[in-house]
Write a structure and sequence with these properties.
- The chain is an alpha+beta fold.
- It folds into two domains: 2-81, OB fold (Dihydrolipoamide Acetyltransferase, E2P); 124-225, no CATH class.
- The longest helix has 20 residues, at 188-207.
- Helices cover 37% and strands 26% of the residues.
- Helix 3 (109-121) runs antiparallel to helix 4 and helix 4 packs parallel to helix 6.
- The protein contains seven helices and eight strands; from the N terminus they run βββαββααααβββαα.
- The termini are far apart.
């Protein structure tokens, strides 16, 4: 099997002294793993940053064995944020989610376009708020739609609308901006509540049933926003 495609580097691990095993989410083939020979060399490793957009040539002689990548850089996206720890951590966290939640060799141009959109979001002033909606859109594409608007109840306290979901054991407040798209002036504490709400859903409804843990990269990203 031999093909060429564009993709985003979503993970890398050292394979030998000179090589790495990389996972790339490609436009036409989905998430693919492969060995990059010489991936630790100075010539290549500088642009093998998580989140960078690369051109890959994939070669595999046997479908039951891991193949090999030859790579070229298309867009060095992560280095743009080397001086912005929050955004750099967000890139790592987002790519880890793609790695964790997508199936091997399952094509999805919608998810590929969503990764394109992710890097556009980082250029906005309210990027954290937009990123939370990005996560919800990713989960929806993967079949895990949270459907908050259908779940919430509404109450008015001190002339302000509050949204919540209620179970037999707890009443959970839902940040207004997640329900009302025209809601403005979202402060950092409210954004953190939104991220933690998605984290809670991820952990309880998706990860734990599959014996998976919430990625450390996500916890680190949230800690940087405090």
């Amino acid at each position: 099997m031999n093909w060429d495609d564009n993709g985003y580097l979503i993970s890398k691990n050292r394979y030998s002294e000179n090589s790495i095993i990389a996972e790339v989410f490609t436009e036409n083939y989905g998430k693919i793993s492969g060995i990059i020979f010489g991936g630790t060399s100075k010539k290549i490793k500088n642009y093998l940053q998580i989140g960078n957009k690369i051109y890959v040539n994939y070669n595999s002689k046997n479908v039951s064995r891991i193949g090999y990548f030859k790579v070229e850089i298309l867009k060095a996206l992560s280095p743009l944020y080397f001086d912005h720890s929050q955004k750099l951590s967000c890139i790592t966290s987002a790519m880890h989610l793609i790695k964790l939640l997508t199936a091997e060799a399952q094509a999805s141009k919608e998810i590929f376009k969503l990764i394109d959109k992710f890097f556009e979001i980082l250029t906005f002033e309210n990027w954290v708020q937009k990123y939370i909606f990005w996560e919800l859109e990713l989960l929806k594409l993967l079949g895990y739609d949270l459907e908050l608007k259908k779940m919430v109840e509404k109450e008015i306290i001190n002339n302000e609308i509050n949204y919540f979901v209620k179970s037999s054991s707890e009443k959970k407040i839902i940040p207004n901006f997640l329900i009302d798209e025209n809601y403005k002036n979202v402060d950092s504490k409210t954004l953190l509540k939104g991220l933690r709400l998605v984290s809670d859903y991820l952990e309880k409804s998706i990860l734990k049933p599959n014996n998976l843990n919430l990625p450390n990269s996500r916890n680190h990203f949230i800690s940087l926003l405090k």
